[in-house]
User: Fold these one by one.
Assistant:
Number 1:
Amino acid sequence: MGLSLTGVVGYQLAVSKINDANGLMNSLQSSFIDDRLDWEHWRANSNIDTQDTYVKVYYDRNNERHTFYSKNTKDYLTKKQRHVPLLNTIEIRDFWHPYYHLYKTNKGIHYEIWVGFHSVTHLFRLIFYTIILVMLVSFLIGTWLISVLAKKLNKPLLNLTKSAQIINQSQPLPEDTQFPVPKNPQEVQELTKEINRLLRQLDERVKLNQQFVSDASHELRTPITAIRGHVQFIQRHGKTHPEIIDRSLGFIDSESLRMQRLVESLLNLSRLDKSTISVTKINMTQVIQEFIEGYRDSISQKIILKLSSDVWALVNSDSLEQIILALLNNASKYSSPEEAITIKLFQANQEVHLEIADGGVGISDEEKNKVFERFYRVDKARNQNIPGTGLGLAIVKRLADLNKITITISDNKPKGTKFDLLFKKG
Ligand code: ADP
């Protein structure tokens, strides 16, 4: 900007100086009266700046040269002359002071004018220094403003870092830790909210893990206590009452079996927590039919199959069998042997539905969501001494999530429970 401004102004000034020189030349030529230059009259009336403009007029008469100089011209002409390359009309005699040189001959009279560009170079210098000064001041003010602004913008981030350091230093990590949310800038506010959301999720996960460990220990402690009790019972009374040994060994066997199932389920769950699953397009009708043929005899209830033919879905076939097995075992456990279990497979609205319905004890509305939690067992199940770990449906839920299957529970009519599985169509 500075350069273009200087260029335009300088060019305009130079043009006006050249016009001045031409005007001066015209006025000089018109002062020529009766073949004689009225030099005195011209000098008296011309308003030339003798510091900046030099005039020389000469002509030859009767083999004699008559020369007129304006004030200071002689001095000027004694100085060493240099030319600017490519600009013939510009010459430099003073240091850094260029002059525009105009030469004309008219009726044997030679006119020479030198107009100095002092004002132009002066203006150039002035603009140059002003630009440097303005740039320097802008740089200083800009640097100061940027540092103030940077501090202001960084402050919330610094606060965030400080809070994180304080939280990190406090051992153990306090529960429900949250960062203070700044009002602005918006980006840091959003970032803090997201971090807080993340912290809440981590907190929930930690709590769930703690709950899981305490539930698992509790569930394992029950059979261990029973086993130890029977072992001590045998140690104390086995010799005197050998008839109790068989009974106690029976208890120890069933309790250790319970423990084995529990540990297997726990291992299964922890494996599923870490794993991802590959799904393929499978013929659900065929897989279910084959599976039920092999399973039918292991439960006392009758299984009714209502399968639409050739239904395909995207699912992992091992997961599918594991889910059906767990749901059928539950259906069998929580209903009487006379109540049939119905398995229905059909397509509706571009989705594949698999329903497993029994006529058993049913699940109340407030417990329908809870039964998927780890170790959750409805009291009715505990009271009736139905064996179980409370992990079966948690494993089903995890498998359903991995396979992107939606699973819902509803009441079966007239009684019992219905599990509805929604698959992605293959
Ligand atoms: P469990 O080992 O106790 O069967 P699950 O996780 O499989 O554990 O099931 C959790 C609870 O849900 C069971 O204790 C039971 O009360 C209830 N439940 C599951 N399936 C059925 C069903 N088909 N009918 C009635 N109640 C059920």
Number 2:
Amino acid sequence: MHPNFEKSFYITTPIYYVNDVPHIGHAYTTIAADILNRHKRLEGYQVFFLTGTDEHGQKVEKAAQERGIDPKTHCDEMVVRFESLWKRLNISNNDFIRTTESRHKKVVQKILQDLYDRGEIYQANYDGWYCIPCERFWTEKDLLEGNCPDCLRSVTEISEKNYFFRMSQYQSWLIEYIEKNDRFILPPSRRNEILGFLRSPLEDLCISRPKKRLKWGIEIPFDTEYVTYVWFDALINYVTGIGYGSEENPFSQFWPQVTHLIGKDILTTHTVYWPTMLKAIGLTPPKMVFAHGWWTIEGKKMSKSLQNVVEPNRLIDAYGVDAVRYFLMREVSFGMDGDFSHTAMVHRINSDLANDLGNLFSRALSMVVKYFDGLIPPPSDLQEVDRGLQEVSEKVLLQVSKQMDDLAFNRALGSIWEIVGAGNKYIDETAPWALAKAEKDRPRLGTVLYQTLESLRIIALLLAAFMPSTCEKMWAQLGMGENLWEQKLNVNGKWGGLKPGRKVAKPMPLFPRLDPTKISRGA
Ligand code: MSP
């Protein structure tokens, strides 16, 4: 690899179907990807972060038909909902790809033509069953009591000529690849699931749909009677998005240093279809595909009406962007299923954010304002208790880096809260308000407040990826004039970066406490 590319990192989210408006599941993956992006940048990586929309296929065509408008107009309207939500959620993606863009269509057609010319794609008769919501074919033996084995909805019988990708020939290669690369599919339970799936013979993949049944898709370049199967089209977005196939592109820098974040329901498409497609195209599979769990809402599976209760814009209105980002990452281990409840949300805000973090911050700042006119005092004559706080911060800095590599967001937050806890304990133990009473204790008072503020500076750096605007505020209030996003954790994360003599701002509450008796039901 080119030496400049060693610290390159490419993050993608699934591209979301535009048959409906964005919901909490979409927000969840996108927030996780944003956090990883921001954190890796603070670690000094060059990161490319891609998200976008999946606009072809039967689901989208049907949604447009139901609204009585053409599919492209429908997509143009829906895509705005996604883009504006990402803006509100402070998502820092480098690019946004829509599968209806010509840059994408061109790449899909080029890949199809190339695979066809090399005999990787052939035509044959297809007799079987089709699930429209999943956009997937099933054989008779796949069905569960006559229904789709994935979503349990009814399926339609079809018999037609179609084009097939010779996926089956890559089965043993894929098994070997997964076995040799134990971080390719994570968490490990998902890796086992796919290895289990691959114990049965892998079939070839039907990659076309006759236009008489579906018009809304990318035309197959070698047979204009057909459009491309939406998944074959959609998976290619990840290479289109970084310029595969064109001269000037970031492709050579970022491929295959890629981490795909997905939900557990789209594991097979990303760890069986996608790597075999890449193998046929002649590209190395991605570094990692991480499948997260699903959210239930107040203990129930997400339905249309529950989707409204946790509509992301409403959550932001009620709780604020950073609290929503924090809750989703803190409440559940990434990879596991979790439950969203307003009670849990309010509890997290009041206890973790307002109480633990907010109080530590405002107590420390107001004492600097009160006792030192807001000028950061210098530390001197460190005692064991002072070094203890520093040691916790140094340990956490290393821990968080490892936890973020494992996408263990909730553990990383747990670690950051170890500093918060240590900071609160430190203030209680050193009792700066008592030191303020005697002039002779002023140097000691200065040391205690410096140490506390310094721990808060480290907290702001480590937490910035999770709660960007809160940490920007903390950073500025701590008198740090430097741009937060230009900091490097291995340099600026070192203890002692806070500058004595600089002025802190009067503290503004970071998180107002919420009244638990007035918990929103989103109605
Ligand atoms: N368009 C495809 C992906 C193509 S990627 C080449 C798709 N789109 S989707 O809009 O239906 O779903 C996108 C993501 O939302 C999936 O990763 C899915 O797991 C996630 N979620 C949908 N409901 C969810 C929850 N209730 N909880 C968490 N995530 C969920 O699939």
